[in-house]
Amino acid sequence: MQTSAFSPHDHSRCITSAIGHAKSLCADRGVKLTPVRQRVLELVWQSHQPIGAYELLASLAKEGFNSAPPTVYRALEFLSGQGLLHKLESINAYVGCCNPDTPHQGHFLLCQDCHQAQELDSQYINLALKVSADQHGFKIQRHTIEIVGTCEECLAQSTALEPTP
Amino acid sequence: MQTSAFSPHDHSRCITSAIGHAKSLCADRGVKLTPVRQRVLELVWQSHQPIGAYELLASLAKEGFNSAPPTVYRALEFLSGQGLLHKLESINAYVGCCNPDTPHQGHFLLCQDCHQAQELDSQYINLALKVSADQHGFKIQRHTIEIVGTCEECLAQSTALEPTP
DNA sequence: TTGACAGTTGTTATAATATAACATAGCATT
DNA sequence: AATGCTATGTTATATTATAACAACTGTCAA
Ligand SMILES: [Zn+2]
Ligand SMILES: [Zn+2]
Ligand SMILES: [Zn+2]
Ligand SMILES: [Zn+2]
């Protein structure tokens, strides 16, 4: 896995790695990565841009898969349940998980310029959440952490385009 | 303002404080807290449970207000723009802001038992987000931080009900 | 073999959330 | 009164997601 979704990299390796990982993981767990489930996962991994359910559905339809909404929502539910992808709540879109072995919700950087997402699992953030929750006697079950802004690459591009003073 | 939405408190004071605050704040800013906007804000503040747009709409309808979706979404957009409420993205619901003077996105504790929400603005969390973003050269514009779990009161209740060993 | 079961998929309909587009009304300034 | 701005009314539609039930598929044991 590359260090950042935002930096240029050989993304085909992301895809093959993710799919390979998913296959072995599902085999280990005794659950079925059926054709439609695998195809949805591949489509989600087509890029680091989170993708919406109905966009996935349109792709499936073009490829001759069944294309009623439950098809894709069931696949997304399965993949999410296996920790193979995450839903980004603030944009109703789905992105592949970089580290599906252990259950987690992750933290996401969303670039509003290139629309790519990078998953983190920062122990700083986890600790800060825990400390804040503890202060209120609150027991954390899960969380949604989505940070919107501009990634390093897009910042560099916009800086390069600025008029020189 | 009370220290916690979860603890028992005189909630009528939350409401009057929030509405009074909103009135003076809108007056200061030269924007209009019209009847429907004020009523939506009051409805949002009816409790510390985040409320959905269509539930607000149903209440408005009962009270003789116009009850087409744009009415409530416009009010929510105005109130959100003035920092008087927040949308909780993970549940598509809206909750009054405790501290509308300064712009912020806040951090939310959502109790899955009593369905109440407590807004925080933890500097620990803000710092952790900033550190993580900085490590990736990412410039934060806004964020969605929603922590789901069980509040202190509900934990105490469930503990009290547990069978003694 | 066959039938019972569990899991998966197909199909239809509908729920829930949100916005586009354009018309009308109120209100302040000139 | 005419103008322009903000807010509201109205109709229609877009977007996201789920309910409900039927049909198919493979497994395994009687
Ligand atoms: Zn990649
Ligand atoms: Zn992940
Ligand atoms: Zn209160
Ligand atoms: Zn707030």
Q: How would you name the oligomeric state of the polypeptide chains in this document?
A: homodimer
CATH superfamily of chain A: Winged helix-like DNA-binding domain superfamily/Winged helix DNA-binding domain
Unreliable spans of chain A are none
- Spatially, the strands of the biggest sheet of chain A line up as 4-3-5
Largest sheet of chain A: 3 strands, mixed
**Largest interface, counted by CB within 8 Å of the partner chain's CB:** A-B, 37 and 37 residues
Mean of residue pLDDT values of chain A: 94
Count of individual helical segments of chain A: 6
Rounded to the nearest angstrom, the distance between the terminal CA atoms of chain A is: 40 Å
What name does CATH use for the topology of chain A?
Answer: Arc Repressor Mutant, subunit A
- In helices, the fraction of residues of chain A equals 40-55%
- Given helix and strand content, the structural type of chain A is alpha+beta
Q: How many strand elements of chain A?
A: 5
Shape verdict of chain A: globular
Q: List each distinct ligand once.
A: zinc ion
Question: Radius of gyration of chain A, Cα only, in angstroms?
Answer: 18 Å
Second-tier CATH architecture of chain A? Orthogonal Bundle
Class of chain A in CATH? Mainly Alpha
Percentage of residues in DSSP E strands of chain A: 15-25%
Number of domains of chain A: 1
